[in-house]
Specification:
about 230 residues, alpha/beta, Rossmann fold, 5-stranded parallel β-sheet, 7 helices, about 10% strand, CheY-like_superfamily, coiled coil, Response regulator, phosphoprotein, Bact_response_regulator
């Protein structure tokens, strides 16, 4: 069963959180509320999120300060942040948002369709990265265990296991390629395009590792791509 991605919604006004939930419910993912920057940072200690929607104007710790804390943590620094703001102070204010680590900066009232489309891109990228990590972890487990009972279900010979892993990786590669084409066609945000390119590089590294394990290609202990 495919696990749903978690989306963190951060706003001090309950009515704004309710509106965001109404807009994003169609994505059928897990929506997590936080009514302050402190509450958001606490949620990020225990859960992994595909994307964060962060209100700029909040009492106490505002959106800029919250984003700075998120980007300083190794666990959370790569999570995409979309800033939401009810006011527009011009280019300087927008630049401050990007400087704080946001991938996008949207002024209220925003188009629900546009917001949902932007969030869906980051959710899909997150899901592809999760699939890639699972494939790499599976391969590492088989290499370290030297065969035996496969976590895929049955006891398999190394050649059969490699073939099954290769087929699963091919499916992820195909989905990643389709996503990259979609981003190119839609003239998506540069951050989303860069994230997709990073995913493709990781897939290429895993494919090379699998190819190196094929009989007759040399060492059977090929190095696997980093998961950072």
């Amino acid at each position: 069963m495919v696990q749903k991605a978690k989306i963190l919604l951060v706003d001090d006004r309950p009515e704004n959180l309710l509106a965001l939930e109404a807009i994003l419910s169609a994505l059928d993912q897990t929506l997590v509320r936080a009514s302050s920057g402190e509450e958001a940072l606490k949620a990020l200690l225990t859960d992994d999120f595909a994307v964060i929607l962060l209100d700029v104007q909040m009492p106490g710790m505002d959106g800029f300060e919250t984003a700075a804390h998120i980007k300083r943590r190794e666990r959370t620094r790569d999570i995409p942040i979309i800033f939401l703001t009810a006011i527009n102070h011009g280019p300087h204010h927008t630049f401050r948002g990007y400087a704080a680590g946001a991938v996008d900066y949207i002024s209220k009232p925003f188009d629900p369709w546009v917001l949902r489309a932007k969030v869906s891109v980051f959710v899909e990228l997150y899901m592809k990265n999760c699939q890639l990590r699972e494939q790499a972890a599976l391969l590492r487990l088989q290499l370290e265990g030297g065969g035996g009972k496969s976590v895929l279900g049955d006891t398999k010979e190394p050649a059969g296991l490699l073939a099954e892993l290769s087929a699963r990786l091919a499916a992820v590669e195909e989905q990643a390629e389709a996503l990259s084409k979609q981003l190119d066609d839609d003239s998506a945000d540069a951050a989303a395009v860069a994230t997709a390119a990073h995913l493709e590089r990781k897939l290429t590294g895993l494919r090379r590792a699998l190819d190196a394990l094929e009989p007759g290609t040399g060492s059977g202990a090929a190095s696997l791509p980093s998961q950072n």
